[in-house]
Every structure is written in structure tokens, then in C-alpha cells.
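Might you be able to check the C-alpha cells below? Thank you kindly.
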Amino acid sequence: MNPATPRLRLRVSPAAESQLRAGHPWLFADSIREQNRPGETGELAVVYDRKDRFLAVGLFDPDSPIRMRVLHHGKPQKIDAAWWKAHLTAALQRRAGLFEADTTGHRWINGESDGWPALVLDRYSATLVLKIYSAAWLPRLSEVIALLRDSLAPESLVLRWSRNLRINAQRFSSDTPSTIPAGEDFVVYGSPITAPVEFLEHGIRFEADVLRGQKTGFFLDQRENRRRVQHLARSKRVLNAFSFSGGFSLHAARGGAASVTDLDISAHALASSARNFQLNKNHPAIRECHQERVQGDTFAWLANAEHHEFDLIILDPPSFARRENERATAIHAYERLATLGLQRLNRGGVMVACSCSAHVTNDEFFGAIRVAAKKSGRRFEELQTAAHPADHPATFPEAAYLKAIYLRVY
């Protein structure tokens, strides 16, 4: 952008003013009432209120319904290299003391909730994975990568793109630094990565496919639920439905489970689970736990598994509602899944049901599971509900996607 170009100035609707003043990190296109000039992807835009006072500053994206992603609101601040460094330091300090030495897989930056909108940073031991979800970051990628490299000194740094950015890579190629291929997940710093990266979670060894795996390579957000399952698993027959790479299963095995059944439609996921069990074969409880791996559709398998009964069932499906118009269907699917799970649960057993659908609220999800339990005709008690772990904070409603409910059923 030409240094002589005037700062991009926005004025917004009264409702948007109130939301920004309250700290909401998104400004939608239809809330903008005045704009002094067309904006460029990734430039800083400043919002002024009706009395011409500074309200917020953020990253502008002319091609997104979320037209500006807020970096700062309140009193004016200069957004320069020192500000970015302090901003990173603040995110790291929020996590000080959260992790023991036996956990080397966690999140350093959780997007908007850490003041880095549409950007996440995960750690897998000495490897960092940076994933971006908005084109607004493209002109700043080199600056961000250099800051992470200098501040955290990783052995390797992987850049990953959200699906929408990958699909539209050609459109954004002119905004991407010449050293970074648009739309390609690759190692931007350090040695080439040719195999899954190993890390620790509560002392259990796992592999993460940081270049091709889901999310950034692993579901780090379920770490505390996996530990809770470990404490429930002693002598239990455990079903881990939608098992992915066996995270819940490994924790259950270490907790003394008699057996675990991993159920997933993906052969690739089940193979990863098998490798993770091999990584931990030196642990006596894990070595002695019988693991069965079943490839199949969870709904169909539960409906037809008449001779299979379990003492602990984990239901952790992928999102059933990726869009608002899928919400009602998703709520019904959660109830149906819980109903099928309860049919396979022994008397006195525990069902752990999870949702990662942001478009389904806590009340809607927990309500669906409770309805299924009531319709089963069985007596049940609610042990607890859970949400995001501390390294995945959710500071505004749209960020709150993760929820879990624990039921003991008689």
C-alpha cells in the first residue's frame, strides 16, 4: 500500500458500535455505514464511533462477510512490531503453569479469544503448526512467521491453510509472500517433515500428522476430557466411537480398562490408533489392555451390535452442523446417537457424549442427550458437563463450540 494512502476509516451501525465496544471481534460487511475508500486485503482499518472517537482497529478483508477482524478496541494503540511481540507474549503468559513436563502438545494461540483473529498456533513438542483461516493474514505471513521463529525457537514451523483459503489459493496468490506457495501446507522453517511428529499428552505418546491430519494434526482440545475418561475406565469394557487416532482409548487403557474398541469409518484413523498403541507398549496397563479396531459407520454399527455391551462409551463425532441451517438436523442426530449408545451401555455404565458444533448451543446439545436418556426409560445421573480447556479459551459466543456431558445410567 502506498504510504501516502490515507488510513482506512470505517463508521458502523449503532448495533455494531455497541458490539465492538463490548469486545466482539467481528465486524460484518452489512454493519458498515461509511468507508472513506476501498480497502485492501490485510490492511489495518480503524472504526470511529458517532462522535468521531476511536473505537477499534483490525485486519480488513474486502472479500469476506466478516469485513474486519478486531485486533484492539478501547484507547488507540500503535500496531507495530513491538505491539505484535507483546501480543504474542500475552498469549503465552496466559498459559503459564498450565502444562506439566509430560504434556508437550497444546495450543499457544486460539484465534480471536487470544486477540489473534482467524489464526491458531499449536505445539507438538519441538514442532509448531500455524493455521490461518482468513486472507487478511496473507500480507503479514512473513512477519508473523519471523516473530514465532524468534520468540519460540521451534525446530520446525508448519504453515497450514483453512479449506476456504486452499480452495481460493489462486485468487490470493498476489497477496502471499513469494517464499510461501499460496494454498499449500508446508514447512516454512526447519528440516523437512516426512513422518508424523511425536508428542506427549499426560505422559502418553502420540503421533500427529502435522501436514495432512485433521485440524493441525490432532484434536488437542479434548485433552482434559481424555484425562477424565482415564479416571473412569478401571476394569471397564470401553467403546470409543468416532475414535480417530485413539486418544480416548489410550487414556482409558492407561486407566486400567479391560478392553477398548475403537470404532471409526476411516481405515487411516484406525491405523493411526494402532500405531499410537504401539508407541506406548512399554506401559504395563496399556500393553495388557485388549484393543479391538472396527471400521464402520457408528450409527449403523451401534444399531446392529446386539451382542456388544460396554461399561464406558465415548461418543465424540465430527461436527454435525457446519452451518446454521443444519442446526435442527444436528440436534436430532445427537439425540439419535445417544439413544443408540445407551442401548449398548451396561447397567451402572457411563456415557460421555461430546459435540464440536458451534451452531448447536450448550443447552440444545445437553438437552438432546438428556431427552435420549429420559426416553430410554432408564434411571440416570448427570456426573458433570465440560467445555473448552484453558488453552482453548472461548471469549465470545461464536467461539464456544466444544461441550461434553457425562451420564451414569442404571
About this structure: The first helix runs from residue 14 to 21. The CA atoms of residues 385 and 405 lie 4 Å apart. The chain has three domains: 8-73, 81-190, 219-409. The radius of gyration is 23 Å.
